[in-house]
Amino acid sequence: PMVMGDTRVGSSSQQFLAITNIGTGRLQITSITKGAGDAAEFSVSPTSFSLNAGKSQDVVVIFSPVSVGSKSLLLTVNHDAPGGSIAVMITGNGAEFAPQLLLSAALLDLPKTQVGQASSGSFSIANTGNDTLRLSAVQVSGDTGSFTVSLTAAKLGPGEAQTVEVFYHPGSPG
């Protein structure tokens, strides 16, 4: 079997199926046909060729899923050697990729801080999804003059996390 793996819906991935002539004479690949399965989501090239003894030819298999889910194709390589044909099962998975934001804290409770002093706390931002998370801005809203953050933008791959420091420096009581 040939496993194409996860491929984003609307894009494509490719692999090579190597066909080798292990005989002593010329081998004619008369056709490579797509049979049972999700034939419309796979393409194959070339579909006919000949090979001298000991030579190989790579056949390009392209998987282009149009929907989410497991896909398969039974590919038949027809030839002029004894047996006449060989079947290869090809599988792939149409996948949606998306980042998923996870904050370690919904509320950050900073200690009481005197005017002119500073305190800080932190939280983490994690990407629990399966695609890159791009943060274009981490901003403070409300009393923006008393708070600053250590991170203004980030790019997190799947499974990555980033700590964000929040600094509080009150300018007036309250």
Q: What can you tell me about this protein's structure?
A:
With 174 residues, the protein is mainly β. Helices cover 0% and strands 53% of the residues. The protein is built from no helices and 14 strands. The protein has strands at 2-8, 13-20, 27-37, 42-45, 49-51, 56-63, 69-79, 85-95, 101-103, 119-127, 133-135, 147-149, 154-156, 161-168. A 5-stranded mixed β-sheet has the order 1-8-7-3-5, with no helix packed on it. It has a 4-stranded antiparallel β-sheet with strand order 9-10-14-12, with no helix packed on it. The protein is rod-shaped and about 90 Å long. The model has no long low-confidence stretch (mean pLDDT 92).
Segments where pLDDT lies below 50 for 5+ residues?
none
Proportion of strand residues = over 45%
Task: Please report the total strand number as a whole number.
Answer: 14
**Fraction of residues in helix:** under 10%
N to C succession of SSEs: EEEEEEEEEEEEEE
Q: Which structural class is indicated by helix and strand composition?
A: mainly beta
Q: Report the C-alpha radius of gyration, rounded.
A: 29 Å
Q: Which strand order does the major sheet show?
A: 1-8-7-3-5
Helix-strand layout with pairing:
Blueprint: E1 2-8, E2 13-20, E3 27-37, E4 42-45, E5 49-51, E6 56-63, E7 69-79, E8 85-95, E9 101-103, E10 119-127, E11 133-135, E12 147-149, E13 154-156, E14 161-168
Parallel strand pairs: 1-8
Antiparallel strand pairs: 2-6, 3-5, 3-7, 4-6, 7-8, 9-10, 10-14, 11-13, 12-14
